[in-house]
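Tokens as discussed.
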């Protein structure tokens, strides 16, 4: 069987804002980004686990490995001006205030598997542009959970 790697253009990236009721229970999501309708120039999903070798005096090689915190991060860049997206990625205490990141759910659909980030927050939100190029909105953040599901 030949191996055909997934082209980035074949990946679907879906970003949704999580809706919660007054008790904090999740009630649903509202889709903000779907690469079927929005141009995503690039994306990255990274998981990093803090590992530390356990050695010491008289032990030139590690006797074990300490497994520390796990951190999930993401970034993606959207091309084109999308005011609704910029407003919905964050909110504040008053209308027009967009100082705090909204809770997101990020789903990347590949040919062989899906990756879902839960409890995600885009702590970095940037809009930039260069002469002759489309406006770009860049988002970076962290998530509290990640699921990878193999497609059948």
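Sequence:
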């Amino acid at each position: 069987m030949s191996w055909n790697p997934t082209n980035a253009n074949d990946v679907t990236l879906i970003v949704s804002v999580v809706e919660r009721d007054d008790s904090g229970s999740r009630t649903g999501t509202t889709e903000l980004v779907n690469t079927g309708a929005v141009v995503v120039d690039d994306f990255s999903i990274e998981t990093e686990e803090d590992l530390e070798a356990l050695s010491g005096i008289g032990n030139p090689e590690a006797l074990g490995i300490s497994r520390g915190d796990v951190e999930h991060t993401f970034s993606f860049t959207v091309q084109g001006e999308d005011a609704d997206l910029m407003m919905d990625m964050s909110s504040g205490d008053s209308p027009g205030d967009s100082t705090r990141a909204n809770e997101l759910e990020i789903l990347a659909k590949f040919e062989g598997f899906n990756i879902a980030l839960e409890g995600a927050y885009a702590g970095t939100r940037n809009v930039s542009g260069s002469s002759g190029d489309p406006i770009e909105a860049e988002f970076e953040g962290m998530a509290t959970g990640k699921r990878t599901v193999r497609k059948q």
